[in-house]
Amino acid sequence: MNVNENGNEISITPEILPFHELIGLFVCAKRPKDPSFNDLSGVVVDETKNTLQIETVSGFLRTVPKSGTEFTFKLPENSETGRISVTIQGNILLSQPQNRINRIKNLRKFRN
Amino acid sequence: MYMRVRKKNKTLSKRVAYERINILFRLAEKNYKTNPERSDRYVNLIRQISMRQRVKIPRHIKRRICKYCYSFLVPGSNCRVRLKGEYVLTTCYNCGRKVHFPYN
After folding, report:
1. Residue B65: beta bridge partners?
2. DSSP 8-state code for residue A112
3. Fold assignment, A2-111
4. Where are the alpha helices (H) located in B1-104, listed in sequence order?
5. Which of A62, A69, A107, B86 is surrounded by the fewest CB atoms within 10 Å?
6. pLDDT tens, residue order, chain A (112 aa)
7. Which DSSP string corresponds to A24-88?
8. Sheet hosting strand A85-89, strand order edge to edge
9. What sign results for the dihedral spanned by CA atoms A99, A22, A17, A73?
10. How many CB pairs under 8 A join A and B?
11. Residues A52, A64 contacting (CB under 8 angstroms)
């Protein structure tokens, strides 16, 4: 299912996820400050600089602010590792979707 | 050493951009029947990612996007595809403009 045009498998690893495409992933949002968002889960539909739009299992559209929210993403199935879920603080994602890739340079700090 | 790491990360960001373009295109195809405006939004994201990261949009994706109004083209519902002489002629129903692609 998750195969490129060239036949390469798409590699969304937990390390690269904050810079990769979030639209289409299954997500659970936890926001301890306001109870109306508790255990919101569904597929990410759209993304802006400060929010994620989520289509819930029951078919509603909810807009969740990124800051102060804890997102648990389910990565697409991989032949080697199977299904992994990754928890991310939303403050890391605060950027426009096309600018988010630029922060991949910061990975250098963690590697070396 | 510093230079080498930096170069490596640059290619990595381009690879991620290429993968994101492919993912978004697949999502646009999948969502066209139910939410056509959503697939137009994904096309917009494809263009912005490719411009920002300076990655080429692959040819098979480029021919499914209207050159003028940037809508997602689906032959049979959204656009007309005809062979005319030495060209493939695509007409967009949203803006009514035509695009030629050569073939041999």
Report:
1. B72
2. -
3. SH3 type barrels. (2.30.30)
4. 2-31, 36-53, 59-62
5. B86
6. 455 444 455 678 888 889 999 999 999 999 888 888 777 899 999 999 999 999 998 889 999 999 989 999 998 877 666 788 899 999 999 999 999 988 887 776 555 4
7. T-EEEEE-SS-GGGTTEEEEEEEE-SSEEEEEETTS-EEEEESTT-EEEEEPPPBTTTB--EEEE
8. A61-65, A51-56, A40-47, A26-30, A70-74, A85-89
9. positive
10. 63
11. yes
CA angle B21–B26–B30, rounded 5-degree value: 145
**3-state SS, residue A12:** coil
Instruction: Tell me the residue length of chain A.
Output: 112
Q: Is B15 helix (H, G, I), strand (E, B) or coil?
A: helix
- Which H or E element spans position B81? strand B79-84
Mutant choice from A54, A55, A104, A106 vs B, greatest count of B C-beta within 10 A: A104
Q: Partners of B80 in the beta sheet?
A: B91
Token couple for B12 = 């990595």
Tokens of A42: 């569904």
Contact residues on chain A for B19, CB-CB shorter than 8 A:
4, 10-12, 20-21
Question: Nearest-5° angle of CA B13, CA B31, CA B35?
Answer: 120
Which tens digit of pLDDT belongs to each residue from B60-99? 999 999 999 999 999 999 999 999 999 999 999 999 999 9
Q: Whole-prediction pTM value? A: 0.87
